[in-house]
Write a structure and sequence with these properties.
Order of helices and strands: EHEHEEHEH
Structural class: alpha/beta
CATH superfamily: Rhodanese-like domain
Shape: globular
Number of helices: 4
CATH class: Alpha Beta
Distance between the termini: 27 Å
Radius of gyration: 12 Å
Largest sheet: 5 strands, parallel
Number of domains: 1
Helix content: 25-40%
């Protein structure tokens, strides 16, 4: 079962300076509208061909629009030995709970 964190927990981790990487697995047209600052963008279909672009140290928070695609990616990354968690509710929840100024595609 995939591990999840809430948008508020993600913000708290960032505020405390915990080593985290945000991996945005949405499609290019989605990230063209908005992204979490500092996130790495790799579309879900390309993640496992581009593992060298994902920091293996610390927590990898995987995000998509609503949390479905990212849950699948986070689960597989976890199986590969990454400390990967899914952002529960995705960008929609992050915008609603943390930063309503961000548009969501």
């Amino acid at each position: 079962m995939v591990k999840e964190i809430t948008p508020n927990e993600l913000q708290l981790m960032a505020d405390k300076g915990k080593v985290i990487s945000v991996l945005d697995v949405r499609e290019p047209e989605e990230v063209a509208v908005s992204m979490i600052e500092g996130a790495v963008h790799i579309p879900a279909a390309q993640v496992f061909d581009r593992l060298n672009e994902i920091d293996p140290i610390g927590t990898v928070v995987v995000v998509c629009r609503s949390g479905i695609r990212s849950a699948k990616v986070a689960d597989r990354l976890d199986e590969l030995g990454y400390e990967a968690v899914n952002l529960k509710g995705g960008m929609k929840a992050f915008v609603a709970l943390v930063d309503p100024s961000i548009p969501v595609a």
